[in-house]
Every structure is written in structure tokens, then in C-alpha cells.
Amino acid sequence: MQTAVQRVSATLAAEAEAAEEAARLRQTIRWARMLDEAYTEHAERGRTAQEQAEAQRQAEADAEQVRILREQLLREHPELAAYAQEQT
Question: Is 82 helix (H, G, I), strand (E, B) or coil?
């Protein structure tokens, strides 16, 4: 009878250890997923910031090109000055 109790006790201990290991594994997986999501979100925000900066640079370059074209238009066709006014 003592050996049956010892076997059951050992089985319960092994099951408890396996359950603890499974819980640690689940926690590790959760942390890994959270880190992956955080890194992905950070990368997306970085791309968004880069895209916004690029769009701003492009808008500034476009505005400068429009300014140059207006000046050229006024030099070549001063009679169109009323039509070349900057729109605000």
C-alpha cells in the first residue's frame, strides 16, 4: 500500500511540475507575443513618422517649385500678374 501511495504521490508531483512548466511556457509565449507586437507597432510608427517627414519635404519642394514658376510667369507675362497671385 505504501508503494501505491508513493506512486500516486510521485504522479501528482510530476503532473504538478508539468502544469507549472506549461504555465511558464504560456507566460513566455505571451511575453514574446507582446514584445513582437510592441516592436511591430514601434516600426510602424517609425515608418509613419518617416512618411510624414517625406511628405512635408515634398510639399515644401512643391511649394518652392510653384513659387519659381509664378516668378517666371510674371517675368515673361507681366500682363497676367492678376492671375498669378498666390492663393491662400
Answer: coil
- Total number of domains constituting the chain: 1
pTM for this model (two decimals):
0.48
Rounded to whole angstroms, how far apart are CA atoms 21 and 28?
10
Domain span at 74: 2-80
Task: Please give the average per-residue pLDDT across 66-82, as a whole number.
Answer: 86
For 39-50, letters b (16+ CB in 10 Å) and e give eeeeeeeeeeee
CA distance 17 to 43: 39
The alpha carbon torsion through 43, 46, 50, 52 (nearest 10 deg) reads 110
